[in-house]
Amino acid sequence: MNYPLTIRFRILAVARQLSVTGANGEVLMYVKQKAFKLREAITVFADQEQTRPLYRIAADRIIDFSATYSITTEDGAAVGALRQKGVRSMWRSHYELVRDGDVVFTATEENPFAKFANQLFEGIPIVGAFSGYVFHPRYRISTADGEPVVRAEKKAAFLESVFTVDRLATPLSPEDERLLLIGCVAMILLERRRG
């Protein structure tokens, strides 16, 4: 996989949609979150036309406080899960990527003040449209033993959200790489909804 990856949110869409592209511009996946669902329902497609679904991400409950989001292939085989750490995530977002009940990666917000300030700034009429230029939340994903693997950071953008994902560590197994990428995209999608 060619890093850095770029995650770009579609501006005018009823349901949240984003595309993930590699460093050379190829589309790696297109993600769509179903609108008006009580439980999170996210589909990951191989193409922007949304004709080849690859993965499904579904919440285990309606209220997403301490929710677990199961990640499965299109045919229902388990890939892993993204677990939000409830009370721990109230100020600083904290997630765990698990496979077969074991924590494989942890994701932590590096600067919780940036997200908090971004949310306040976005709420100001007219001026809030420029919030994408001011505050930039960052998230670090590490292995279960604490070695940093990737960093996702919001970049300056007008009227949209753009994140970059940079590799910080040595290559991973294909199985871990897949879980890391899908989990990172799901986390950013969920965090984007919160500010």
**Oligomeric assembly:** single chain
Q: What class do helices, strands and sheet pairing give?
A: alpha+beta
What's the N-to-C terminus distance?
28 Å
Alpha carbon gyration radius: 16 Å
- Give the amount of beta strand, in percent: 35-45%
SS summary, helix count: 2
Mean pLDDT: 83
Which bin fits the share of residues in helices? 10-25%
Specify the biggest β-sheet: 12 strands, antiparallel, barrel
Number of DSSP-assigned strands: 12
* Shape call: globular
What spatial order of strands do you see in the largest sheet? 1-2-3-4-5-6-7-8-9-10-11-12
Helix and strand run = EEEEEEEEEHEEEH
- The unreliable regions are none
Give a structural overview.
The chain has 195 residues and is α+β, with helices and mostly antiparallel strands. The two termini are 28 Å apart. It is globular, with a radius of gyration of 16 Å. The chain is 16% helix and 39% strand. A 12-stranded antiparallel beta barrel has the order 1-2-3-4-5-6-7-8-9-10-11-12. Strand 5 (53-59) and strand 6 form a beta hairpin.
Please render the helix and strand layout as text.
Blueprint: E1 5-9, E2 17-21, E3 27-33, E4 41-45, E5 53-59, E6 68-73, E7 78-84, E8 94-99, E9 102-109, H1 112-122, E10 138-143, E11 148-155, E12 162-167, H2 174-194
Antiparallel strand pairs: 1-2, 1-12, 2-3, 3-4, 4-5, 5-6, 6-7, 7-8, 8-9, 9-10, 10-11, 11-12
Please outline what is shown here.
The chain is an alpha+beta fold. The protein has helices spanning 112-122, 174-194, and strands at 5-9, 17-21, 27-33, 41-45, 53-59, 68-73, 78-84, 94-99, 102-109, 138-143, 148-155, 162-167.
